[in-house]
Amino acid sequence: MLLARIAAEAGCRRGHFFLVSPQRRDERGNSVRKLVLLTVFGLVVAGCSQIPGLGGDPPKVSLESTPPGANASLSSGGSCRTPCTLPAPDKSGDYNVTYGLAGYTTLTIPIKVSVKKENWYSSETTTVEPNPVNATLQPAAAARKPRS
Question: What domain count does the chain have?
Fold first, then answer.
């Protein structure tokens, strides 16, 4: 019923639908073939293209420590308790990950982020070195008690 009303509003007569006109059988077959080829071509092009910002997860930096549970903070922003992941920085450059845990010395590890785009039509790829970032925290030296 709804389809019939839409067809009538589009100026189609009964039995004549949107893409199929009253043509000879050969011409109708060619039209359908062209429509199918156009659809397949469109799907192939859409499948091959990678539009930046669409699809996929953003790149991440994996942070691990021994012992686990340390507070890890990335110099570009963001912090979490290990083991965890943070979003990678948007720009290429050198960054630091600082680990801290009560009773252990603070440890800072440098990381390098590279953002590249191979072609004008490809999306950017982000590489983080090292990834995952592993830190082995050392116990803090015991504080000396003053002599009385």
Answer: 2
The model's confidence at residue 119, banded by pLDDT at 50, 70 and 90, is: confident
Q: Which domain holds residue 27?
A: 2-48
State pLDDT tens for residues 44-66.
Answer: 666 555 454 444 577 899 999 99
Residue 26 maps to a domain: yes
pTM score of the predicted model: 0.57
Return contacts of 115-124, CB within 8 angstroms, 24+ apart. Answer: 115/90, 115/91, 121/49, 121/50, 122/50, 123/50, 123/51, 123/52, 124/52
In this structure, the answer to whether residues 43 and 69 fall within a common structural domain is: no
| Residues whose CB is less than 8 angstroms from the CB of residue 134 and which lie 6 or more positions away in sequence, other chains included | 64, 65, 66
Contact predicate 101/67, CB 8 Å: yes
| Residues 65, 15 share a domain | no
Contacts within 8 Å (CB) and 24+ apart, 102-110: 103/139, 103/140, 104/67, 104/70, 104/137, 104/138, 104/139, 104/140, 105/137, 105/138, 105/139, 105/140, 107/135, 107/136, 107/137, 107/138, 109/133, 109/135
